[in-house]
From TrEMBL, chains A, B:
Superkingdom to which the source organism belongs: Bacteria
Name under which the protein is recorded: 5-methylthioadenosine/S-adenosylhomocysteine deaminase
Keywords (A to Z) from UniProt: Hydrolase, Metal-binding, Zinc
Documented EC number(s): 3.5.4.28, 3.5.4.31
Broadest EC class assigned to this enzyme: hydrolase
Function: Catalyzes the deamination of 5-methylthioadenosine and S-adenosyl-L-homocysteine into 5-methylthioinosine and S-inosyl-L-homocysteine, respectively. Is also able to deaminate adenosine.
HAMAP family: MTA_SAH_deamin (MF_01281)
Recorded GO MF terms: 5'-methylthioadenosine deaminase activity; metal ion binding; S-adenosylhomocysteine deaminase activity
Co-factor remark: Binds 1 zinc ion per subunit.
Catalytic activity annotation: S-methyl-5'-thioadenosine + H2O + H(+) = S-methyl-5'-thioinosine + NH4(+); S-adenosyl-L-homocysteine + H2O + H(+) = S-inosyl-L-homocysteine + NH4(+)
Residues given in the record as substrate binding sites: 94, 146, 186, 216, 301
Binding site for Zn(2+): 65, 67, 213, 301
Entry's family note: Belongs to the metallo-dependent hydrolases superfamily. MTA/SAH deaminase family.
Top-level taxonomy: Bacteria, Bacillati, Bacillota, Bacilli, Bacillales
Length: 433, 433
């Protein structure tokens, strides 16, 4: 049995019954076994003691939408019209990817996410074995899925579906349960209806949730209406998509009826504010979604449209943005914004009962924040400070499943120097190869 | 003579004729005396050589609007209606300030700004001697002004004006020219017209520029129309405000005619996107202002409405925000956003000929960014990376006037531990005293 006693820390639990605790937390193996103001008792004689003063502890962040391998394309194309960005820049480069590139990009993403406090992330891409192996090695949680674009001949469609199913089958529950899998037709505008139905059927057969891009741009919504006679939410609903547990990314352009339907069907949303701003897609109706009871979580999307994977930025922006847009300074308060990145993120990936809070019985997925920095002074309100003044650069240590995966800002399970070198080499090859 | 030769660095010059240079920079005393790809010649035999590889160098940032002393109130009140925030939270606490509090808050702000790459800042507050002394000691540049609220009896008005004038007179050009001064009636809605005219007259008499808050909220614009029969820009113009060099903060609610008049009068704007979002004031028409030829710069406003002083956040947000709002992904590209925080900032404080660029003959106010971090890989485009992926936490070293004021992330001229301790103690006294 391994036991860690963190003494005299400031704990941001994300639990409404006691939002912050000054006191103690005990980790026994992979679980939180005690958190409270009082000194714990019944500790093992071999318990490791850690001084928690000058640190704040909070649950690890959950990034609910991204494409890790695209981290290689960070900064390769900015400030462009979406079609130019996608068709002239992203797709030609992505077409050159081999396994080693996916591996290099994913490893770079995992290093960046871990160091900035993300302990679980959703990833949708191809060559997903590479991503899964990186997750296994890096020590974090991955909710992984082979994203499939269905604009191709039937035999190719069939092969892609089979690839998606075999990945989902092979990796679900692997890495001591840190990896779970989903099925993902890429988007309503890139997958014919009959093809989407095949994913829905497979999700039923394999008891898996579904993930897709939805209503990211206005043009896409209009095209859906023109082509299929309904907006994307109704369209996916008709195809049975929401008969499975489902997570949709973006959901920027929604009307009231669509919001009501998402709430009714229990669909979770991944809000990607930075990517949506950068690609000029618009701003999702987050306060309305929350009011309707929809689980809203946060995603970075890829580093090609962000261009970083620090989820604290999404947390801050979801607190700031909706105030400025609505004219209501009470819109998405700090505590709610922090939930988007933690507890709601955990619920969005169907792990709300085990991660996303510092709570007895929960998995020990948590981060330590270095409070001894000028931007955290005076220490008025830790929740406010984390949301409005903090950043992933303030993360000093990270634990997942009770194992320390970042120590003093350095990944303990991954060779950062090698990963940076290989990412640079891969990009160079993609550019000139 | 002191001379520093930085070898093999990546220099982001902010000069359109050669935006980035891989090569060398030489600092002689307080000036940049060489920058270029070739190895410099005619160096002094005592030149200090610094290895610039793995670092990027850029001009120090210019923060054109803030209230440093309010850093003590960071996180003291968030997610509140503006009037509650101001009248029930800010003003009662500010009323308790004594010199030591202003000093403590300003010193904390200066530490945070320096460490995140800001080398010059505009500050509008009272007890400005305290701020000026902190600037003198900290080694950065201050464009300082006693902000005056004129909603008070005539004798108090007179005393405040006199305080503002004597501060401006005493400190202009001090600290080897690092301190310059302005005159500042707080805002059209807090100063009667006749009182504003006194500041305008004094600015003419003393040959000083003017600074004020303007058109931050819609309510304030409407009130101006109701009370004075004109919108704030026309109102200030009639009072002669723009007959002096002028910098206005916020400028969120402007119509086309007002934008044209600001351009015609050569008025500079301080865009404060984070504060404007957080207080739900709205979003300034930055692309339209830039198109009209107005000098737009960036300000954090105070840490009570931000809640940090990292200007990289304003740079990133001014690149992201206007894309999402306008639907145009080419709005405010990265290079332009970086100019807002550097060259345009320098012009906004009338120092565009000496700071804001890495250029021969310019003052040696610059920062070194640690490139060896995962979020800067691959090193595709340094300008994109600084804007969309960087942060003030990436700043390793800072120089002002050729003197190194931050080394390996630590202020060389200030006692950070003492400053943090005193800030905490001051806040505690304000809260409980």
């Amino acid at each position: 049995m391994n036991q860690l006693w963190i003494k005299n820390g400031l704990f941001v639990t994300m639990d409404d019954t006691m939002p912050t605790v000054r006191g103690h937390m005990v980790i026994t193996d992979d679980r939180i076994t005690y958190i409270g103001a009082e000194v714990p008792n019944q500790l093992s004689p071999h318990t490791v003691i850690m001084d928690g003063s000058r640190l704040a502890f909070m649950p690890g962040l959950v990034n609910t939408h991204g494409h890790a391998a695209m981290t290689l394309l960070r900064g390769y194309s900015d400030d462009q019209k979406l079609q130019v960005w996608l068709e002239e820049k992203m797709w030609p480069m992505e077409a050159k990817y081999v396994d080693a590139d996916t591996r290099a990009g994913s490893a770079l993403a995992v290093v960046e996410m871990l160091k900035t406090g993300t302990t679980a992330f959703v990833d949708m891409y191809d060559r997903m074995d590479q991503v899964a192996q990186t997750v296994e090695q890096g020590g974090l949680r991955g909710i992984l899925t082979r994203g499939v674009i269905g604009l191709c001949p039937e035999d190719v469609q069939k092969a892609k579906l089979e690839d998606a199913l075999s990945f989902a089958r092979d990796w679900n529950g692997k890495a001591n349960g840190r990896i779970t899998t989903l099925l993902s037709p890429h988007a309503p505008y890139t997958c014919p209806p009959a093809y989407i139905e095949k994913f829905v059927q497979a999700a039923h057969d394999m008891n898996l949730p579904l993930h897709t891009h939805m209503s990211e741009t206005l043009a896409e919504v209009e095209q859906n209406v023109k082509e299929y006679g309904s907006r994307p939410v109704e369209h996916l609903d008709k195809l049975g998509f929401f008969s499975r547990p489902a997570l949709v990314a973006h959901a920027v352009h929604l009307n009231d009826e669509e919001i009501a339907l998402l709430a009714e069907r229990g669909v979770a949303v991944s809000h990607n504010p930075v990517s949506n701003l950068k690609l000029a897609s618009g701003i999702a109706r987050v306060p309305d979604l929350l009011k309707a009871g929809v689980t809203v979580s946060l995603g970075t999307d890829s580093a090609a449209s962000n261009n970083n994977l620090d989820l604290f930025e999404e947390i801050r922006l979801s607190a700031l943005l909706h105030k400025g847009i609505s004219g209501d300074p009470t819109a998405v308060p700090a505590w709610e914004a922090l939930k988007l990145g933690t507890t709601y993120g955990a619920h969005a990936v169907w792990q709300g009962d085990s991660i996303g809070k510092l709570k007895e019985g929960y998995k020990a997925d948590f981060v330590a924040i270095n409070l001894d920095q000028p931007h955290f002074y005076p220490l008025t309100d830790i929740v406010s400070h984390l949301v409005y003044s903090g950043s992933g650069r303030d993360v000093l240590h990270v634990w997942v499943d009770g194992r320390q995966v970042v120590q003093d800002g350095v990944c303990t399970q991954l060779d950062e120097e090698k990963i940076k070198y290989e990412a640079a080499a891969s990009f160079d090859r993609l550019l000139h190869g």
